[in-house]
Amino acid sequence: MTATIERGSATAPVNSPKKAPARKRPGGFLGSSNGKKVVMAVTGAVMVLFLVAHMLGNLKIFFGRDSFNEYAHALRTLLEPIAPYRTLLTILEIVLVVSVVMHMWAAISLSRRASHARPVKYVAKKSQANGYATHIMRFGGVTILLFLIWHLLDLTFGVVNPEGVNSAPADRMISGFDASRWWVTLIYVVAVVMVGLHLRHGVWSAFQTLGWANRNRYRALRVTAAALSLVLVVGFLAPPLAITFGVIK
Ligand code: HEM
C-alpha cells in the first residue's frame, strides 16, 4: 500500500491540479533582496572604477596646469573625429547618473524591507550589530550627494568658482582651493572622508554579496576594502590640500 502511494506521488505529472502554482516574487530578480544587493554591488563597482580614474586624473595637477588641462581636453575629444565632441564624457555621465539612481533605489528599498522585517529575529540582530555602518552609510550617502551638487557647480560648471564659467579646468581647480577659500577645502576633506567610510563598508558588503567573504578570506578582504578606501581618500585630498597650503601654485 505504502509503496503504491509513494510511486504515485513521485510520478505525478508536473502540472498536477493539486500542486499549488509556484508563487511569483513581485518584480522578479530585481524585486528580491539578492537582486537589489547585486544592483548595489554592480553600480557600486562602476562608481569605484570612476573614482579611481577620477583620482588618478586629478593627480595630473601635480605636473602643472598644462598637463591637467590637456587631460581635461582629452576627456572631451577622445573619440573624435569618429564621434562628436564630448561623446565619451556624455556616455560616462549617463552611466554615472544611472548608477547613482539605481544604487540609491536599491539602498532605500533594502532598508525599507529590513525595517518591515524587524520582528524576524536574525534581521533584528544584524541591524543592531551594523548600527554604526547603517548610520554611516545613510548619512554618508546623503552628504556625498550634497557634496556632488556643490562639486559640479564649482569645478565642472564654474558657477560658484572665482574663475567663473569660461575658464580653464586647472585655473578653476587652483583658484577654487586657494588658501582664502580654506572652507571649500574643509568641505572637500569632510566629503572625501565620508566617501572613504562609505566605500570601506560598501566594498566589504559587495564582497559578501558576491559570496567571497568566507572564513579564510575574511581578514584579507576587510583589509582590501580599507586599503582601497585609504588610497582614494589620500589621492583625492592631495590636490586640494597641496593647493591650499601653497605647494601647487
Ligand atoms: C576631492 C578631490 C576632487 C577634486 C579635486 C575633483 C576635481 C574635479 C574636477 C576638476 C572636475 C571637472 C573635470 C572637467 O570638467 O574636466 C570634476 C568633475 C567631477 N567629479 Fe570630482 N573631484 C574630486 C572629488 C570627487 C569625488 C569624491 C567625487 C564623487 C563622489 C567626484 C565626482 C565628480 C563627478 C561626477 C564629476 C563630473 C564628471 C563630468 O561629467 O564631467 N569628484 N571633479
Automatic annotation (TrEMBL):
Q: What InterPro entries has UniProt attached to this entry?
A: Cytochrome_b-558 (IPR011138), SQR/QFR_C/D (IPR034804)
**UniProt key word S-adenosyl-L-methionine:** no
- Transmembrane regions listed in the UniProt entry: 38-63, 83-108, 129-153, 182-199, 220-248
Disordered as annotated region, ranges: 1-29
Listed GO CC annotations: membrane
- Annotated SUPFAM superfamilies: Fumarate reductase respiratory complex transmembrane subunits
Q: Which UniProt keywords apply?
A: Membrane, Transmembrane, Transmembrane helix
Q: What is this protein called?
A: Succinate dehydrogenase
This protein's species is Nonomuraea aridisoli
